[in-house]
Every structure is written in structure tokens, then in C-alpha cells.
Queue: 2 jobs
Job 1
Amino acid sequence: MAGLSPDLQTPCLVVDEAKMAANIDRMARRIAGLGVGFRPHLKTAKSVEIARRMLPDMGGPATVSTLREAEVFAAAGVRDILYAVGITPAKLGRVQALRARGCDLAVILDSAGQAQAVAAASAGAGPIPVLIEIDCDGKRAGLAPDAAEIIEIGHILHEGGADLRGVMTHAGGSYDVSGADAHAAFAERERRAVVTAADRLRAAGLPCPVVSVGSTPTALAARDLAGVTEVRAGVYVFFDLVMAGIGACAVDDIALSVATTVIGHRPDRGWILVDAGWMALSRDRGTAGQAVDQGYGLVLTADGRVIPDLIVTGANQEHGILALRPGAAATPPELPVGTLLRILPNHACATAAQFDAYHVIPADIGAAPAIWPRFGGW
Amino acid sequence: MAGLSPDLQTPCLVVDEAKMAANIDRMARRIAGLGVGFRPHLKTAKSVEIARRMLPDMGGPATVSTLREAEVFAAAGVRDILYAVGITPAKLGRVQALRARGCDLAVILDSAGQAQAVAAASAGAGPIPVLIEIDCDGKRAGLAPDAAEIIEIGHILHEGGADLRGVMTHAGGSYDVSGADAHAAFAERERRAVVTAADRLRAAGLPCPVVSVGSTPTALAARDLAGVTEVRAGVYVFFDLVMAGIGACAVDDIALSVATTVIGHRPDRGWILVDAGWMALSRDRGTAGQAVDQGYGLVLTADGRVIPDLIVTGANQEHGILALRPGAAATPPELPVGTLLRILPNHACATAAQFDAYHVIPADIGAAPAIWPRFGGW
């Protein structure tokens, strides 16, 4: 495979450095054009090497989805991190430990109970910064922008000794709609939700310096972010088939794939068996509800060309079943046992999580193949 | 949580040692009653500590699904291993390296091309043992029991210098049917398929000392294994909701769970949000097609009691959404932020793979909590 070690052991995770760099550059230019700050989400890649490329400055700002991410990236020099999953009391010790080591780690919450716990922990070891989570699309957590609890929580935090830093939201619903107009509409829902909540906090005499929004589709489509101070996004670093299916990228932009080897055939069924099953690809079937169902992934040649209509139609733990998509006119290609292939993932976050390293196709054709470690856990 | 550290960081993977021991004992007694050998599959647990409990003798025999499993378990003393995924030429170097270190590692294949590659590698560094893979239910790989290629492959291996050791099959279809009678029928399909193939090899003057079958449901339900020399099974060590859904175990037998913490509520929607999303639970929805759809898992109290009708109805990367199952008469329980819960997985192999350690509830109530490492990769 071009740019990769010839004795590659499959399945393994492959990142195309040139495509990744183009994706990073595209998002950076988008955000700069909107005139707001950018806080990349590092949960997709979970890699210090890739964080160095996503963050213009390794000091941050950055977003994470687990405290282990915060710990690893703080150790690598990131000093401004938002942990963007609702905090629990039992995690505040790790938050304070990271803050004591010089990392400005902020948390999010959406209830008075959490706010009381954070205020109590702040009284002990210094003010913990908090964003109040706002719901903009009914998909997950957060308070409605007009909820009375926002002001209640604001007072608990501000008067209880925590650092009330602002509000944040995430339009997970933007993944369920297709096209720039629909994504722009979700971006406006994000903006309106947090700006409304921020205005209410300020009207109540409470501080709200940070107004944070974001998802990859809304970040790429937003037209006006008046009142917003920063955008968060993560999966854009690789993109994936789900993002391509909603028009946030082209299939050719996808920088992540799983390298796999043909291990057998069932010509009676039109199957080609490979050594990437769901343990490698993940069980994510995010394209199942889209206009084009890509099965467990779309198949490429080893050098990255799409094999027309060949998808992963089934997956066991260590076996993938390749077949032509239903209704395809093509004939299955000749792919003898031992043939190297690559598979584009439905969901980059889920597929990358199945591996502990990235095999890098270098952007510089003359460069040596690289392997970048990846971590998981909590 | 009883038997676990009070400062547990969630989500984390929990194993109930007493339930696991009972599952191991149940399977051992079943196989002994059938009068055949047992080759436990170590792919579910991927843990040296748990392999020590699954294998009556740490020397083996054992089954694995990746060469990394073979390497880790060989280093821990296992000396008789079947790598039960179709071999590719590029993996033969690692196979030979393990064999050179004293591990009797056998491979499987189902094509003349693979057989030629294995024979060629055997000529170089000593005979590699091979089982020919037989298909018994059309679910995955393998040759039909009456396929002419079986004899062709047998000759390539035997005369080419490999060690033709026998035949194997796996009735993945047994996971799709419910009840002991249906599982016993699949066990008989497994038996008949490999015994037919073995008889044909022997009639052609070829050796076939090993006749290997197995899956957890068929191993637990088989009534007669005449002609079979060994059974393989793996998921029985923990069991899971899929196995309970087809009647292979009771929900109370399930030894694996994910500990999680309540992080918020959406009373308007009847949701309880927890810090175990699909990154912790996996995307496996194996009960979706069963009589009782358990969502992404069934919720327990921290000490292991089922909370009636509370399941994980939705999952984001680090958020799980708990709600009553559709049509449930119960009212959602009061579970404040910070409450510890546990979630039984649909598929133990998939959920365990999301973690790098087991938090053990010791069988001995007075024992200290233990943490057993777990590995992944290929």
C-alpha cells in the first residue's frame, strides 16, 4: 500500500495525512471567516500527534469527552480544556487535580444538584469553571434556553464560589439532516439557544463570558454567529461516511480507513470475506437510515480508490462480509486471498476507538511510514 | 457498590467473579458429560487472569480470534492454541514465530490458495498444523461438507509438508434461534457437517485426528457428539442479554456489566442520562431482533438488582439515555445525579472490548477488590 509498510498486519487503522491536513485547514478557514474562537474536540482522534495538528497552539483551547483525554492532553501541554460531558461529584477530585497541575479545565452541568457539588468542591480547592449546558434540539442533555433553572444554577455557582464561565450547546440533531441549508438552520438553533440563555444570565446580573456552540455540520454551515464566542467540532479531522451522507464532506475527503486482507470467498453467495469484522469496524451502522446505506463501510483498493458498489454487508467479530450493494449492476471484482483492501468507516469516532494506533500514509510521498499511538478509556 | 472500590471512576467494566465461576463450572460439566475435549475460546475475555480460570490447565487447549491473543496467551503459558479465523499469507511469519517459541499454534483455512501458502511456509520452518473450515449453516466462511475442494486442500497440505490436523465448524446461526431444542438441532448440524468432512478426508487416505465444533448455544444443548473430538465456546464465561434472549442462560447468570453514574435528567421526556454511552456499551444492538429488545442494555442497581423495565434506549458517544421500555407500566425510579448503576450488555464480546480492565466483584465477600487487565488489538 502506497506509503505504508509492506508487512502491514491487518486489520489496522490507516490515516491519510494529506487528507487530514486538508480537513483541518478547511475547518480553520471556516471558523476564522466566522470571526469566532475555535475549540477543537479531541475525542475523535484521541492522539497527541493529531492534537498537535488540530490545535494551532498546543496550549489549547480544546474540548474533550472524558477525563482521561483531559489528563493525557494536559500532560502533552494543553492548558485550556473543556470537559463536555455532564460532571458528577465523584469526578471532581480528578478535575481539581488537573487544575492544580496548571490546566484550566472547565466542566459542564445542567442541574442545581451538580452546581451545589461543584460549588462545594470550589470552596475547598479553588473555583472550578463551569459552562451551563443548554438544549437546542431535544436530542440529549441540557436545559431549555428559557428554563428558570438556568438562573438558579447561575446563582448557586456564582455565589457559591465556582467560576460561572458561560453556556454551551451541541446540535446533535444536525447529524440527522442533509445539506448546507439544513445544517445552517441547526447552527442558528444552536446560536439562538445559547445567546438567549447568555442574555438571561447577564440580565440577572451574572457573568457569562463564554458562549459556546458546535458540531461538525453546523460549524461548516453556520452563516452568522453573532453573540457566540467559540465553536467546537471534532469529527471533521477525519470525516466519515455519515458526514458524507449528509453532505458535510465528499467521500474522497475521508482521511480514516481500516486496512484489511481478503481471507476467503463464498462465490455461491457473492461474498468476499476479509479479516476486518465489527471488532475492527465497530458495530456503528450510522448510514443505515441515510439515503445510501453503506453497510459497515465502503470498500477501497489498497491505494484508496473506491471499488464501485462494494460494501461490507455483514460483520462478525473478526470476519467482514463484502458484497455488492443490493441492486448494483457491477460484477464482484476478482480479489484473491491475501489482497489488501481498505474500508471507509460509517463513524470515525467509533471505528478509531477499536484501535490503539494509527498507521500514517505520509503527506510527503518520500517520508517514512509513521505509527502514531492512540489511547482510549476514561 | 458491594465488593468494588468506593471511589470507582465510571464508566468501567465490572465482572462478578462468583457468577463467572458458576458459568465456567456449568460449561465444564456439560462438556465432560458429552465425553469430548474442550477448547475454550478466549476472545470474549482477552484476559490472562480470566484465561487461568477458563482453562483447567494453563497449557491449553484454547481457541483465539487474533494473533495478538495467541501471542499474549502463549507468553502466559498456553501451549496449544487454535487461531480460528481464516489465515492469510502475511500472517504466517507470526504463526511460525510463535511455533518456534514452543506454542503448538494451529490455523484454519478453506481454499487451495491458502493451503498452498501454508504448505510453502511449512517447507521453510516446519509443518504448520491446519484445520479445514467447514460450513454448517451458511452464515460465514467454510466449505460445504461435500465440497470437492476439501479433498484437494487435504492433499495440498498433507503432501506439501503441512500438518493436516482435521476439520472445524461454528454454527453462528445458533445465535438466531431460541430454546434448547433449536440449539440442539444446530449442534447436530455442526456435528454432521464436520463428521461428514472428516469421513471423506479419511476415505481419501488423509489424516483427520481433530473434529472440532462449537458455539456457546450448541455446546450447552448438544445431545450426541459422536465423531466429534472437541468443542469450542467462549461467551459462556460472562453470558449476555443476547444469550439470555435465546434461552442459553438466565439474566441473573450474566457476569459482566458496565458501571455508570447518573449525570442528568430530562423529566419532560422520561429520560435519565448516564455517563455510559456507546463508547462504553458498544454499538451492539443484538437484542433488537429478539422477542425482548433490551435497547443498549438492561439497567441494574449498583448491587446488581434489575430495575424493572429500565433500559438504555439511546446512546451517544459518552451519554446513555435510560428510559422505561415502551409500554412499561412502571414509573421511572428516582435516581439522583451521582447515583451508581450497572448495565448488562447485549453482547459481552463487544462491550468488554471497549475497556482495558475488569473491576472484579470478588467471589469471596471478604476479599479486596481486584482489577484485572484486558487487552485488545490484533
Job 2
Amino acid sequence: PDEGARTAARERQGALIKPAGALGRLEELSVWLAGAQGASPPRPLERVRVVVFAGDHGIARAGVSAYPPEVTAQMVAGILAGSAAVSVLARTLGASVRVVDMAVDADTPPEVSAHKVRRGSGRIDVEDALTRGEAEAAFRAGMQVADEEVDAGADLLVPGDMGIGNTTPAAVLTGVLTANDAATVMGRGTGIDDRTWMVKCAAVRDAMRRTRAVLGDPVQVLATGGGADIAAMAGFLVQAAARRTPVLLDGVVSGAAALVGQRVSYRAVDWWQAGHLSTEPAHRKALDRLSLVPLVDQGLRLGEGTGALLALPLLRAAQATLAEMATFEEAGVSGPAAG
Amino acid sequence: PDEGARTAARERQGALIKPAGALGRLEELSVWLAGAQGASPPRPLERVRVVVFAGDHGIARAGVSAYPPEVTAQMVAGILAGSAAVSVLARTLGASVRVVDMAVDADTPPEVSAHKVRRGSGRIDVEDALTRGEAEAAFRAGMQVADEEVDAGADLLVPGDMGIGNTTPAAVLTGVLTANDAATVMGRGTGIDDRTWMVKCAAVRDAMRRTRAVLGDPVQVLATGGGADIAAMAGFLVQAAARRTPVLLDGVVSGAAALVGQRVSYRAVDWWQAGHLSTEPAHRKALDRLSLVPLVDQGLRLGEGTGALLALPLLRAAQATLAEMATFEEAGVSGPAAG
């Protein structure tokens, strides 16, 4: 981020016709956006792009989800048809959606499956999610997708996820990377019952044990305890930062990908804001480790990028107030009385 | 609110292609909006109107604010010019703004001052803010403004405030109506120093003593410890409910007006949501008494309707997801596995 633009933004905030600090966190956001864009006041966000990384997870066959695995491909179709939650929210809040199939266990349209590395990631409680080569390919694919989007003019990127069972690898990665145990990072995902919770807990514990052994190597962490969708998302987040493009993170899956991304590139976090706080326990742990404070807390636990999109209007509000409000001098408004 | 529409909305939420409850508070909001509109799914919000009730307060001359009183009229001009925070946020987030001068201590344009009852409300620590006749006129003016807006097609109303010193009567009314003492409801308004805080605290305490004596009579409460702007806002909120039009409340001034409105019409609260939580301590006390949970908490303390506007996209998101997402059946998506 550009320190000069940040300083200029902070000064302009202090001159706007409002009490100092009265716009609360919007002021801080406007400074962050100015720094990311290298411009004060920051420019309006005109091409906000959600990229939904889709993939199936072998662990879903172990019975960790309330939904059958075929729902992943059905929901990819739903997103493409514009009838999923992320599609509706993107339309309503001014963004567009792209789906990238990294490992869906079904055929998807060619424009979606160009980066696919396999059908379904491995069952992480007993085997690696990916070979090392697949993990590297997926990570690079995510980087390439970020490049494509930035080259096409994206000025804000939002990572989304779609994959039955994907909160299990997210919990595994978060547990391992934040040094929390399985029970601390476990959540109910799409809404599982107590019996399924016990199955999921055992799976997370076993997968965490396998993943902890490779902790020093971020790509191997993705190969062992992650999946192709999360690996791609990690590459996407790292490359967005490298391309100086701001990011609104979504929920627990993007939080896990961000933790891996942080291991790859420590300063990448400067380019990310936490869009929302999910009800999944691992998400709070991940954000704490990333030192990010979520913008919105509406009790969502849907993924797809939906939580991040709810924060988009706040970012737009921050941009607009800094760019469009008058200063005391411009408006001829009296400042505070001398103390 | 329409119980049939609420039930239909709740049922449709359960059928949408997402885990039950995964949209968190958006689901509850969508049901509230359906009930308010008497329609499931609810209709898009197409004419959202912010009405800023402006007025000066004699108490400002006692030195309770960081800003001189002439700022009220200057900021009215700023709002009309489109350069104030509320103007920018309304443009950015899809709303329009009307200013109603109830008691600005200066001349304002005729289209703004049609309902004005006086120049400056009285100094409430030593005298009534308004005569009873003025309080009644102001309350009725607020009702008339709500009628005008609803008749013009408003489908969501947002009360805004503009007036140097107005957090003092807001604290007084909130303290008296929630049975809290002056120090508990006192805040720093636009950002006062310690010496000004002590002056304001004494003023709030004295005004609360005067107002507590008339507690059983809501209109007299407005006359004794309020002001023409807050009286009009109270009438506006009550009439919005009577006209079955949903409202997003803003900060501490609208919270105080809402407390008075609740005394006038207990069920009016069903038509209101709390847009945001202000940093002013009285605001939390008011929302607790109204049993409202704020949608957004970004540390704002600006008034004008700005905090409420930040919550508007959440309401739009709630409407759109319920209205536009596909159901499991429509999309051919498999539901949860049988337990």
C-alpha cells in the first residue's frame, strides 16, 4: 500500500464537514482503499469480481456434511444460472460472479473447468487431498485467475467457495495454522447433527495430525489437508496482493486459504479486509491470526462469497464519503470552536 | 405487520437453495419486510427516503457542543447542496434526502421551512424547549411529513437529524424514558473535551429533573426536554407505522424520538428496525428499551441518517435473496440427506 496516498486520505478525512472521527470505521476503510489504489481520494469501485472456487472433497463421503456430494455440481449450475445466493447478492450489490471448477466431481462447462486439476480432492483423514504437483498446479491456477481478473480491470476481488464438505479442510488448515485443536475449530457447516459432528470431529483430528507433519511447507499443507479449490484460492489471494488489488475475504474457507497465503507472502494481508464474521468457529480463529476485524456480523454461514458481498456497500460508502463530501473550507462551514 | 406474509416468507426461506438458517439475520429481515409490506416475497425497495429534521437548541448556547450553533444552518445548506455525509451516502446507496427545518435559528429556503415552529428550541436546563402548542404542532408536522412521503410512494423511511446540541435533548429524553441517570446516557456528541463534558452533564441532569416531572405525558416530555426537531421526528415515526411503512432508525437522536413514539403507540416499534449502533451511550439504552438489535456497528456518531443508510444494503440483500433465489425444487438441487 501507498503511504503517501494513506497520509493524504487521512488529512482529507480530517477536513470533511463532520466531526473528526464521526464516520467511525468508514474513515479507516477509506484510508485503506486509498493506500491500496495509491490514490487519494480513492476511485469508485466499478468492477468488483467474485470468483467462486468450486471443488468436491473426498471427506464428504465419510459423512461429514448434511448434504450429499452431488450438490456441489448442482450449485455450480445454480450460480451459473443466477439463482444462488451469491448470484442474487452480486446483482443486488453491484458485482459480477465467475465460477472456477478446480475439483468438482462432475463435468462442468468448459469455460468453468479450464483450470480443473482433478475430480474430487482426496479423503484427507486417510490420504492427501492432492499430489504435490496438483497442489502446485492449483495454486498457480489461482494466481492466473487473479491475473486474468486484474488484467480485465477488476478493482476489487472477492473469493467465494462452493463445495460440499469444504468446511472440513478449512477447519483442518485453520486448526493447524493457528495451533488450535479440532474441537476448537470445528463447526456445524451446513447444519449437521450430533452424530455427524462426531464423525467430522474425528476426521478433522486425523487430518490435522497428518497435516501438522508438513507445517513448514505451505504448498504441502494444501496438498495434505486442503484441496484443489482452497489451493487455488490461496494462490488467488496472494496474487491479488502482488497485483496491488484489494480483496474482501468471505468466510471460513477463504479464511483458511488466507492463512496459507499469509505463510507464502506475509505482507499480502495488507491488501485484504475481512468482509464478515461467519458463525463457524474456525473463522474467528483465522481472522485473529490474520489481525483482521470483520466488517459485518449477520450470522451468515453460507460461503459462496455472500458474507463478503454484504460488506461491499461499506467499502463503497467509505470511498464515496472521502471522495464526494465537501471540506469545511469548500462548504463555508464553521469548524470546532477554539478549545 | 401481516402474519400471513410473515409465515409465507418463513416457508419460502426454508425452501431456498442454501442450508436452513445459513443467511443468518438476512432471513429474519426478509420476514420482517414481508410482514411490513404484507407481501411474500417482499418487493424491492424502490423509493427510500431520508427525512432530516433540523433544529437548533438553546442548550447549545450553554456550551455543550464542540461546534458553534451557526453550523446547523450551514450544514442544512450542505445537505441541500449534496455535499454532506448523508447526501453522499444516499446517492451511493440508493436513497433520496429531504430536509425539514423545524427550528433552525436562521432563515432556510421555503421548501425546507414550511413546517418550522420557531427559531431555536428553548434552553432545556432552565426552560421548556417548546410551548405545549409548539410541541403538538411539531409532532403533527412530523406526522404530515410521513403522510406526504408515503403518499408520494416512499417504501422505506429513514429519520435523520441535524442540529448542534441535539445529543443533549436526546440524552435527556433517553435518560428519563429508560430510567438511567445523566452520567449513564451522556456522550461526547461531536467530540467535546472534558470541561465541555462537565457543562453538558450538568445541563442533562437539570433538564432530566425538569422532564421527569412530566413523564406521564409524551407530548409534554417533548415540550419540556426535547425540541421541535425531535418532536417532529417522533410524530414522523409514529405515523410511518400507522401508514404501514417500514423504518430504519438512525442514531441517538432518532432513538430518543422512537422512545417517545413508543409511549404514544406501543406497537409502532414493529415497523422499525435499528439501522446501526452509535457510539453515544444513550443509543444503546434506547435500543435496549425498544428491544431492537442494531444491524450495523461501524463506530459512527454523525447522525443525519448516515448510520441507518449503511444498513440499507442489508435490507435490500434480504429482500433480493428471498425474492430471487431459486428453491431446491426449482433448481433441481438435492436437499439434506435423510437424518
